[in-house]
């Protein structure tokens, strides 16, 4: 490392106001990248199943794309986390987004060549963009204080909404554009995904300097030299915080994906139109992200444990309403799925804040990546098992079971508060 670089890093260690400036600048860069990342994510997911159905000539494997990029996102979450831990957020996130963009290009080539094998491999790689889109929420927390972390996560999440809304609305436009250049219509949205993911990666690679994670590491190392009052049970307390944060996010992911996945099928069985189904899912997706700014403030002001319990209670109400709602009622389904999105939002932001609180900078990114692997696998499992539950019983049973399962969050949080409450206790950087 050059002398100039060392001097720059030292200036951040010595001047708290520069840390604050970098924190705000990092949030701005993350917001910009997330807008593009959200567009890349939503555009591809919207038509992935339709493209597979068209290329395979059957809808029997229409669910394969979602399974593949979920599996790819699980592997990428681990890789991005480890890259970030070793080289900084800039390299980890930029690599993840650009890899996802290359996967989207592969999907386009697969459609042109009509190669199912290339399609499946490319969808697996495309999952890297999905994982990175979620991992980027951590970047804004590296230089945040414990009273800012929930807000920092929420800002990253709410900015994803803009891209996630724009992506599906550009499907027709990109489809028409694809036809004009000799590309199959359904591959058009993946052209948008490729461009959006690559731009998101380039924004982070070019502008995320100095790297907030590397600065945070240096600040923490400097404090360890000057501070010798580390408690001997910090590691034990940190492990409990990581366990609780991960449990909150995994449980909320399972419940949310399970009910969300089967809601369109349930509504279709009761004769609802695609527009009605789209309305319900639209409210659900909006409820997943738009409340984030308020959620982040509440998580920081009221506390992580209280908001985790609120997540469980909200998901319970969602499951009960979905279970008792008449099949013909669009209004009650909107309410149920909106509560489902809000409950997930509360769980993800409070759980993420707990993970950040309970990790030291030296291992934080690697731990975050590992936790996101479990979240991705939980989502895939929830989606897969939901179909089996409905086939063996009913949508009502699935919804009620999901609501009851979410109540596990309450004893988990109570357990976390035993022994004089440990959440959050990690020293601020």
Outline of this structure?
The protein is mainly α and 429 residues long.
Question: What proportion strand?
Answer: under 5%
Number of strands: 0
**Could you name the CATH topology of the largest domain?**
Growth Hormone, Chain: A
Structural class: mainly alpha
Q: Over the alpha carbons, how many angstroms does the gyration radius reach?
A: 22 Å
In one word, what is the shape?
globular
Label this structure with key terms.
mainly alpha; 17 helices; 429 residues; 2 domains; Growth Hormone, Chain: A; disordered C terminus
Q: What order do the helices and strands come in, and which of them pair?
A:
Blueprint (H helix, E strand, L loop, with lengths): L2 H12 L1 H41 L7 H24 L1 H25 L2 H20 L13 H21 L1 H10 L7 H20 L4 H15 L7 H36 L4 H16 L2 H11 L1 H21 L5 H28 L6 H29 L2 H12 L2 H8 L13
Helix pairs in contact: 1-2, 1-9, 2-4, 2-5, 2-6, 2-8, 3-4, 3-5, 3-15, 4-5, 4-8, 6-12, 6-14, 7-8, 10-11, 10-13, 10-14, 10-15, 10-16, 10-17, 11-14, 12-13, 12-14, 13-14, 13-16, 13-17
How would you describe this structure to a colleague?
The chain is mainly alpha-helical and 429 residues long. It has two domains: 3-224, MFS general substrate transporter like domains (Growth Hormone, Chain: A), CATH 1.20.1250; 234-416, Growth Hormone, Chain: A, CATH 1.20.1250.20. Helix content is 81%, strand content 0%. The chain is built from 17 helices and no strands. It has helices at 3-14, 16-56, 64-87, 89-113, 116-135, 149-169, 171-180, 188-207, 212-226, 234-269, 274-289, 292-302, 304-324, 330-357, 364-392, 395-406, 409-416.
